[in-house]
C-alpha cells in the first residue's frame, strides 16, 4: 500500500469498515438470490461514493486516483457487483467532467454526484465490443434533436441507471470511422428507448446487464457531449483509461478476498494428521498467490500515482489491468482448490469469487486488447528509428 495522507486514510478506513460491517455479511446470500442491493446503494450515496471523481463545485469529492483505486479495491473485496454499480457511473461522470459543456456539467453532475440518478455507459453492441469503431448505432440530426437508432448490448446499470452515455455514429461513412463517432448524454423517459432483457450471467449478479433498443429515440442537440460531432470515440477512450485502474483495483480486491479465505482455511483444515498449511504444496500455492497479489498492488498504485501526476499512463494502467485481473482469476481458482470440496460449495464465498473474476478479464477492454495496447506503447517507446 502506498503511504497515504490523512484524508486518503480516512476514506480507506470508512469504506473498509462499510464493507466489513454491511457488505460481507449479506453479499453471498444476496448474490445467490440475484437481489438488487437498494439498501447498500443508499449507504454508498451517503458515503459520497457516486461523486468520487466529480469536482467539488458540482458536489463531488474529486479524489485522486490512488484513493479511487482504494475504494474499488475495498468494495470488490466484499462484493464485485457492488463495485460494478459504481464503475460505469463514474466513467460517465469522468467523461462529462472532462469533455461536457458548462451547461451539461451544471445540469447533470450534481445529481450524478449525489447518486440521486445513476449512470450507465452504452458502448458495446451485439456485433461490436472490442472493435468499437464498427458500431452501427446512428445519431441523425433533425432540427434541435438527434434521433438515435440501433441496439446496445451488455449495458451495466441499464435498468436502475437513468442517465446514459451513448456512443453513436453521426457520420457512418467517415474514414477513419472514429472521426464520425459522437457521444451523447441522454435521459430515460423519451419514447423510443426500450430496456430489453437482463442478460443471465455466470457471476457479477445483482448488478444488471441489459440490452438496449433505440428507435428514433430523441436526444436534444445540446446533449451532444462537448457540443461538437466526431469526438465521441476519443471521449470514451479517455474515460476507459481511468476505468482500467478501477477494474485492476477490483481484481486486487477480489484476489485479496479469495486469498484471505484460503489462508484462513488452510490453518483450520487437517489432513493426514497435520494442518493443510503444513503441506508444502499448499504453502507453495499460498506463496505464489500472495506474491502475485502484492505485484498487482504495486502495478496499480504506481499507475494511479502516475495519473495523479498528470502523466500519460496507458501503458501502466494496461499492465496493471492485465496483471491484476489475471491474478484475480488464477487466485480465485487456487483458493477453491485449497478449500477442496468446500471451495465448490455455496457455503463459502470462494465459489462467488471464482464466478465473478472472469468478467474482469473481459470487461474494461479484454486482456487480449490490453496486451496489444501494452505492446504498441512499448514499441513506440523503444523505437529504433
Ligand atoms: C458482465 C458484462 C458487463 C458489461 N458492461 C458493459 C457496459 O456497461 N457497457 C458497455 O458498453 N459494454 C459492457 N460490456 C461489454 C464488454 O465491454 C465487451 O464484452 C468487451 O469489450 C468484449 O467485446 P465482445 O464481447 O464483443 O467480444 P469481441 O470483441 O467479439 O472479442 C471476442 C474475442 O476476440 C478477442 N479479440 C478481439 N479483437 C482482437 C484483436 N484485435 N486481437 C486479439 N484478440 C482480439 C477478444 O479479446 C475476445 O477474446 C460488458 C460485458 C460483460 C460481460
CATH superfamily of the largest domain: Butyryl-CoA Dehydrogenase, subunit A, domain 3
Order of helices and strands: HHHHHEEEEEEEHEEHHHH
CATH topology of the largest domain: Butyryl-CoA Dehydrogenase, subunit A, domain 3
What ligand molecules are bound, each kind once? Answer: flavin-adenine dinucleotide
The largest sheet has its strands arranged as 2-3-7-6
Number of domains: 3
* Range of strand content: 5-15%
Rough outline:
globular
Helix proportion: 40-55%
Computed Rg: 21 Å
The profile of the biggest β sheet is:
4 strands, antiparallel
Low-confidence stretches: none
Q: What is the β-strand count?
A: 9
Structural class: alpha+beta
Distance between the termini: 39 Å
Short description:
It contains 10 helices and 9 strands. 52% of the residues lie in helices and 15% in strands.
Task: Give a verbal description of the structure.
With 385 residues, the chain is α+β, with helices and mostly antiparallel strands. It folds into three domains: 6-114, Butyryl-Coa Dehydrogenase, subunit A, domain 1 (Orthogonal Bundle), CATH 1.10.540.10; 119-229, Beta Barrel (Butyryl-CoA Dehydrogenase, subunit A, domain 2), CATH 2.40.110.10; 234-381, Butyryl-CoA Dehydrogenase, subunit A, domain 3, CATH 1.20.140.10. The chain has ten helices and nine strands. The strands form three sheets. The chain has a four-stranded antiparallel sheet with strand order 2-3-7-6, with helices on one face. The two termini are 39 Å apart. The mean pLDDT is 97. The structure holds flavin-adenine dinucleotide. Residues 88, 121-124, 129-131, 154-156, 201, 204, 209, 359, 362-363, 366, 368-369, 372 line the site of flavin-adenine dinucleotide. Flavin-adenine dinucleotide binds at residues 88, 121-124, 129-131, 154-156, 201, 204, 209, 359, 362-363, 366, 368-369, 372.
